[in-house]
C-alpha cells in the first residue's frame, strides 16, 4: 500500500514540473514576439549646430526677447495715451426743494368777494381705445397744471367799481365842460361874453382833464390793461348818450379776474367761492417744477477739492426710486458755514426736471467728477506690475522691436480697467507698453543674472 502511494506522488511531481517549464517558455516566446523594436541610438549633434534662442538681460533694466519667444508667450503691446478719464468726487447726499424763484403767489388786485373759481377739463375714466375718453369740468385744485393766463378766480370788488366810477365821472364832466367851453369861446370872440367867464370855463376844462388822467393812472397802477381802461372811458361817454343806451352791468363793472401768472402746477389753494379776500391773501401758489433746487452736504475735508473745480460745476443727480436714471444739474453755490454737528457745508444747485419725475422732498445723491488732469497718462491695468514696493512697466525700445525696458512709474489713480500714472521719466504718450506677458518679463528679469556677469552675444 505504501509503495503504491510513493509511486503516485513521484509521477504527479514529474507532470507538474514539465507543465511549469512549458508555461514559462511559452510566455517568454510570446513577449519576445510582442516587444517593440529598439530605436536606434540618437546621433551626436554636430559641433556647429545652432543653439536655441534665449531671453537675454543686456542691461540692468533691459531685456532682449527673440521674436519666436515673444510669439510663443503671446507678448502684446499697446500705445500709451494721455489721460482722458475723470476721477469721481465722493458722492454728496441731499434732498430736493422747490425753487422759490419759480414760485408765484397769486393775489387779487382788489379786495372783495370771490364769486367763482376757474375750471379745468378732466377725463371721467381711462380710455383703452382710439376714441377720446369722456370728460367733465371741475374747479382747479392742488396738483392741477395751469398755463399762463388761465382764469383761476373771479372777485367782485366795490373798490374797483368806485375807481371806475371816478373815471367815468371825470370823463363825463370833461365832455360836458368841453361843450360849454366851446360855446363860450364863440361868444367871447363876438364880445357878448366877458373874458372872465371864458377863462373860468377854460380852467374848468383843464381841471377835468387832470381828473381824467389821475383816474386813469390810478387804474393803471392797479394793473388794469389799456383795453380795460379804454372800456371804462367808453362807459363814461355813454352817460351823455341818448336815454336807453345800454350801460355796463354791475357784475362786469366790479369784476376782477385772477389769472395764472406763469406755467406750472397749483401747489396751494386757499380760497373758495364766497370768501371775502383782501390784496395780501395768497389765493393760490403756482410753482414751476421743471427745475428743482438741490440741497446737499459736503464734508469739510473735501471743500478745497470742490472749490478748485472749474466753474460752472456740472453734477448728476440720482434718486433711490429710479436707480437707472440720471438727471443733469449744476452746482451753484458752496456755503460758508460749517455745521458743528456734522462738520459739513451746505451746497446748493439745481437739477432739470422737464417731465416731472422728480418730487420735492426726495432724497438724492449727487455725483461730480474731477476733470482729467494734465501730466498723466492712461495704462491698461495688466501693463502695470506691482509688488508692494514699486510699480513698473515694460516699454518697447524705439527702433528695436525685441528690446524691452523696465521703467518705474508713479501711480496717480486706479480704475477697474486702467491705471493712471505720472507722465514722467521714460514713459510718454505714444510709447508701446507690454500688456500680455508683462509678468513673464518681470520674472525673467528677476531670474537672469545681472549684466556685469553675463556675456552678451553679438
Automatic annotation (TrEMBL):
Signal peptide: none annotated. Residues 315-366 form the CusB-like beta-barrel domain. InterPro entries: Beta-barrel_RND_2, BSH_CzcB-like, MFP_Cation_Efflux, RND_pump_MFP. It comes from the Bacteria. Residues 141-288 form the CzcB-like barrel-sandwich hybrid domain. GO terms for biological process: copper ion export; plasma membrane copper ion transport. One of its GO terms (cellular component) is cell envelope. Belongs to the membrane fusion protein (MFP) (TC 8.A.1) family. PANTHER family: CATION EFFLUX SYSTEM PROTEIN CUSB (PTHR30097), SLR6042 PROTEIN (PTHR30097:SF4). This is HlyD family secretion protein. It comes from Limnoglobus roseus.
Amino acid at each position: 500500500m505504501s509503495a503504491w502511494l510513493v509511486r503516485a506522488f513521484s509521477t504527479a511531481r514529474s507532470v507538474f514540473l514539465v507543465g511549469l517549464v512549458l508555461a514559462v517558455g511559452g510566455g517568454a516566446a510570446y513577449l519576445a514576439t510582442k516587444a517593440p523594436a529598439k530605436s536606434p541610438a540618437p546621433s551626436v549633434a554636430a559641433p556647429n549646430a545652432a543653439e536655441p534662442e534665449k531671453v537675454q538681460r543686456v542691461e540692468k533694466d533691459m531685456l532682449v526677447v527673440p521674436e519666436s519667444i515673444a510669439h510663443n508667450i503671446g507678448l502684446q503691446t499697446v500705445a500709451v495715451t494721455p489721460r482722458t478719464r475723470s476721477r469721481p468726487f465722493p458722492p454728496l447726499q441731499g434732498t430736493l426743494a422747490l425753487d422759490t424763484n419759480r414760485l408765484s403767489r397769486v393775489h387779487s388786485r382788489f379786495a372783495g368777494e370771490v364769486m367763482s373759481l376757474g375750471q379745468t377739463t378732466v377725463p371721467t375714466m381711462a380710455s383703452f381705445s382710439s376714441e377720446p375718453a369722456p370728460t367733465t369740468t371741475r374747479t382747479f385744485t392742488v396738483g392741477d397744471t395751469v398755463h399762463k393766463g388761465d382764469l383761476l378766480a373771479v372777485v367782485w370788488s366795490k373798490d374797483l367799481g368806485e375807481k371806475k366810477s371816478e373815471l367815468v365821472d371825470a370823463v363825463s364832466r370833461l365832455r360836458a365842460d368841453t361843450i360849454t367851453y366851446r360855446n363860450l369861446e364863440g361868444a367871447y370872440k363876438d364880445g357878448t361874453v366877458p373874458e372872465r367867464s371864458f377863462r373860468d370855463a377854460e380852467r374848468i376844462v383843464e381841471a377835468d382833464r387832470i381828473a381824467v388822467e389821475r383816474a386813469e393812472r390810478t387804474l393803471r397802477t392797479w394793473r388794469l390793461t389799456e383795453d380795460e381802461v379804454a372800456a371804462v372811458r367808453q362807459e363814461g361817454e355813454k352817460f351823455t348818450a341818448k336815454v336807453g343806451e345800454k350801460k355796463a352791468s354791475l357784475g362786469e363793472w366790479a369784476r376782477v379776474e385772477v389769472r395764472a401768472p406763469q406755467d406750472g402746477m397749483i401747489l396751494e389753494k386757499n380760497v373758495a367761492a364766497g370768501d371775502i379776500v383782501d390784496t395780501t391773501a395768497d389765493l393760490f401758489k403756482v410753482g414751476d417744477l421743471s427745475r428743482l433746487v438741490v440741497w446737499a452736504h459736503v464734508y469739510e475735508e473735501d471743500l478745497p477739492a470742490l472749490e478748485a473745480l472749474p466753474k460752472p460745476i456740472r453734477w448728476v443727480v440720482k434718486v433711490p426710486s429710479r436707480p437707472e436714471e440720471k438727471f443733469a444739474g449744476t452746482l451753484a453755490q458752496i456755503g460758508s458755514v460749517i455745521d458743528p454737528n456734522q462738520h459739513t457745508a451746505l451746497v446748493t444747485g439745481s437739477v432739470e426736471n422737464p417731465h416731472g419725475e422728480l418730487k420735492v422732498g426726495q432724497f438724492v445723491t449727487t455725483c461730480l467728477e474731477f476733470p482729467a488732469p494734465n501730466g498723466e497718462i492712461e495704462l491698461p491695468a495688466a501693463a502695470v506690475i506691482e509688488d508692494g514696493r514699486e510699480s513698473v512697466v515694460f516699454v518697447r525700445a524705439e527702433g528695436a522691436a525685441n528690446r524691452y525696458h523696465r521703467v518705474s512709474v508713479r501711480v496717480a489713480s486706479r480704475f477697474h480697467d486702467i491705471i493712471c500714472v505720472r507722465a514722467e521719466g521714460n514713459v510718454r504718450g505714444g510709447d508701446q507698453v507690454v500688456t500680455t506677458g508683462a509678468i513673464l518679463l518681470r520674472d525673467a528679469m528677476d531670474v537672469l543674472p545681472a549684466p556685469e556677469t553675463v556675456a552678451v552675444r553679438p
